[in-house]
Amino acid sequence: MATALVDSKRLAMTDFKGKVDPDWCPGCGDFGVLAAVQKALVDLQIPNHSVVTISGIGCSSNFPGFINTYGMHTLHGRALAVATGVKLANHDLTVLVTGGDGDGFGIGGNHFMHTMRRNVDLLYIVMDNQIYGLTTGQTSPTSRVGMKTKSMPFGNIEAPVNPISLALAAGATFVARGFSGEQKHLTELIKQGVQHKGFSFLDVFSPCVTYNHDNTYQWFRPRVKKLEDDTAYDPTNWLAAMEKSVLWGDEIPIGKFFERTDVPTLHGAEPILNAGPLLHGDMRIPPDVARSFVEELM
Amino acid sequence: MKQTFTIGIGGAAGQGVATPGDIFAKIFSRRGLHLNAYNAYQSIIRGGHTFLTIRTGPEKVSNMGDRLDLLIPLNQDAMDRHLGLLRSGAACIYNADTIKPGVAVAGTALCPLPVSKLADISRNKVAQNTLAVGAGLNMMGIGFQALEQVLTEQFKKKGTAMVAENVNIARAGYDYAAANFKPFAWPLPMTNNRYAVLSGNIAMAMGGAAAGVKFYCAYPMSPSTGVLHWMAAHARKANIMVRQVEDEIGVVNMAIGAAHAGVRSMCATSGGGFALMTEGLGLSAMMETPVVVIDCQRAGPSTGVPTKTEQGDLWQMLGAGFGDYPRAIAAPLDIGDCFKIIPEIFNLADRYQCPGIVLCDLLLSEGRLSVDPKDLDFAPVVDRGELITEAPSTAGTNGNAAYKRYKITESGISPRAVPGVPGYTHTAASDEHDEDGVLISDEFTNPTKRRAMMEKRMRKVGGIEAAVPPPELWGPHNAEVTLIGWGSTKGVIEEACEILNEQGISANQLQIRWLVPLRGDAILDILKGARHTIIVENNYSGQFARYLRSETSFVPNGYIRKYDGEPFMPHHIVEAVKEQMSGKSRLTVPAHEILV
Questions:
Q1: Which residues of chain A make contact with B283, given a CB cutoff of 8 A?
Q2: B123 touches chain A (CB under 8 A)
Q3: Does A208 touch chain B (CB under 8 A)?
Q4: Among B89, B25, B35, which residue's Cα sits nearest to residue B57?
Q5: Which residue from A291, B303, B322, B486 has the highest number of Cβ atoms inside 10 Å of its Cβ?
Q6: Do A285 and B258 touch (CB under 8 A)?
Q7: Burial of B239: CB neighbours in 10 Å, binned 0-12, 13-18, 19+
Q8: In this predicted model, what pLDDT tens digit does every residue of A252-288 receive, in sequence order?
Q9: Beta bridge partner(s), residue B534
């Protein structure tokens, strides 16, 4: 982090409180994610102004408005593309991307895949509630087969995407899953994701209490099992992570599936950024370089 | 009439049409001659038909002209298609071993080269091309040394043997012409000037570098890809982050992200890619993050004709994105202007925190022009507007309650803080928002605030309008006919006016560069004195004519339109004007006689 603390005072939870309170439904899983992100930033003592929280559109994508950092509330599905631009223009910034499963795996699916393979240094938190909430309850890319919604009233006949397997296959260098009902564990994963140098993917079960009556807190609670509790599990083993990623049923793993630290980040791989962020560089082309550009054409 | 000399080189893609073209272009520009080149080609990598026109002369050459002085057909097809284009005094140099000559028009010369006798064609597959270049230059009265130098530069990477082989072949062609062919009546002159020869795509890329663009991204799409190629090749020298992105939706959003973080950010595409960008353009307007998007128009709709030119995207630009928002749209008038327009539109976009669109087309993007190096100014005026990139020393870390990103001001411009600056944290939003960035699309929805924010943003339109100069009328006042065009048709209309004036029909020209803001009042002022007005444009429906009418109620006397994929040639316009002046029609659609 190149940006140093300006004030010597320690940042507290209240420092990260947004201008307005969240307008999510009472009981929404997203409250837990917001609190965990704020707690992680406090624990890491990252100054507000050096964080940019970027979202797409949807209930969970209103997130940037509820936290005191720089924020961007962009287009549906496009947050990762915008975030890549932000990071490349100023790689001193800590970039958080927040959104939902429809935003990230549906309309934004293409950017999801490509941002992962590029290893853009950011943390992408998907508040995965297996439903479209803000449009009042339609099937999402992670809705289970058979789930009845307004858009598929006779039950979903399409197989859901597996975000964890997808991320592993696309080359994400940090892949984790959290549960909004497991605050401490979630906070820990967020801290690790922020600190990881490269693309960190964190899928969070964040129940929709209004429209998803299948995947509730009560449904998740007995099923989620922390990978960290299994001392034999090695998160540097990609194949083991892939095997764990397909578990779904009575036992659903949460925690860090995979991390590797040997892949350069996108900004780290580009020599022109060695001298520092583009934002702080000279806008002008040096006269001798400009002359050489013209001479090539003569 | 200006003296010019025009060469046409035709052949199949992959036969090496480009190389002789490059050699001629280099030699002409080094003689201090101007040139204009246009390549008519097809969406095919090998085969098909490609026809390159290079026109040169001591004065500015604004378009490809009507007729040829020298034709070099590289295959039978090119001979058959183009022999009829020769003007009196012209010649056709061809491979006598493989090509049967057509019937030459009186006053033109057929110059067969015995290629297999002059060169070892088993060793050198493009010997016929090199021989023809040598022969042609001899007939133009140009010393062999100029060619030797260019060939040496061209082949030096491949070793001295390769240089010697090509120089020897060129020499054989040169000497054969000296002994057997009659030189052209007008030996090409020399001047002390030196020009850079560049395409519109290179010009726009360099203009971006000059404007301080630090982030460029794109998805490959003809005819805009040349911008990406220049940017990518020069990124490290120019310190520009260049990315190839998964699609144009990603492109525009990534560009907006970089722009939001504070650097000048640009992208280029063609109509189809632009269609994907339109939602992002609205985001740029709503978040008030300046971004510049170049649209290199090609013949549409849909995939259309990817390698052919058109001015068919105007209404897409005008209507890009839903809702009302301020934007600037400029159409460069020639390749030199492609360079100049980029810093200008960045200054507008930065000052007014809105998207800027450059509406180019294949004719300029892929055409080539000689430009005075002095016109490629790498130190243009840079105005970044009200941008906050550093905090005053009094700022704390935890946000500055007093800072309102979307502060309501008289100009509509609100000071823009970039992420990373202590004390200015805020959220930029695509939802409608209040002055402090808080969304007013949900529980805080409020018609009074919505109206105030709409009016704030739209007030910037007035500022943009005042910042742009009105168009001017070129040519004699009180002319019999006024030709109105926009963007890339500048050069050909200019020449059509010259020809008309020489033929006794006084003609002048009104060429529109800024489409938004249009400066409608200034245009009406100019046109109220016009005697007979004709709008010339490269599309089917008269997109500019309809736009001008919608903005000003102005209706011209006639229209000249072309939508066959090829650009106008001067005679198309001259003949159409005469036809319309005689009252025969109000709409002329000239036929493109050359089948390319």
A1: 74-75, 78
A2: no
A3: no
A4: B35
A5: B486
A6: no
A7: buried
A8: 999 999 999 999 999 999 999 999 999 999 999 999 9
A9: B483, B558
In chain B, ranges of CATH 3.40.920.10 domains: 5-180
What gap in Å lies between CA A167 and CA A88, rounded to an integer?
Answer: 21
In chain A, the N- to C-terminal Cα span, in Å, equals 45
SS3 content of chain A, % helix, strand, coil (to 5): 40, 20, 45
List the CATH code of the domain at B473-588.
3.40.50.920
Judge: A298–B197 Cβ closer than 8 Å, yes or no.
yes
Which of A48, A62, A282 comes nearest B397 by C-beta? A48
Question: For tokens 């999510």, what's the residue?
Answer: A24
Second CATH level (architecture) for the domain B5-180: 3-Layer(aba) Sandwich (3.40)
For residue B33, give the chain A residue with the closest CA: A298
- Given an 8 Å threshold on Cβ–Cβ distance, is A290 in contact with B378? yes
Per-residue pLDDT at A1:
38
Q: What number is the ipTM of this complex?
A: 0.97
Here the CATH number for the domain that contains residue A187 is: 3.40.50.970
- Which residues in chain B (177-196) have CB-CB distances under 8 A to chain A? 194-196
| Region(s) of chain B under CATH 3.40.50.970 | 197-375
pLDDT of B492 over the 60 cut:
yes
Chain A interface includes B92 (CB < 8 A): no
Question: Which residues 23-42 in chain A show a CB within 8 A of chain B?
Answer: 23
Distances in whole angstroms, Cα of residue B48 to Cα of each of A259, B18, B76, B77, B365 = 52, 14, 12, 10, 21
Query: CATH homologous superfamily of domain B197-375?
Result: Thiamin diphosphate (ThDP)-binding fold, Pyr/PP domains (3.40.50.970)
Alpha helix (H) residue ranges in chain A: 30-44, 79-89, 101, 109-118, 163-170, 183-195, 217-220, 238-245, 266-269, 287-295
In a domain? residue A288: no
Reduce the DSSP state of residue B127 to 3 states and report it: helix
pLDDT at residue B393, as a whole number: 64
Convert the pLDDT of each residue in A191-246 to its tens digit. 999 999 999 999 999 999 999 999 999 999 999 999 999 999 999 999 999 999 99
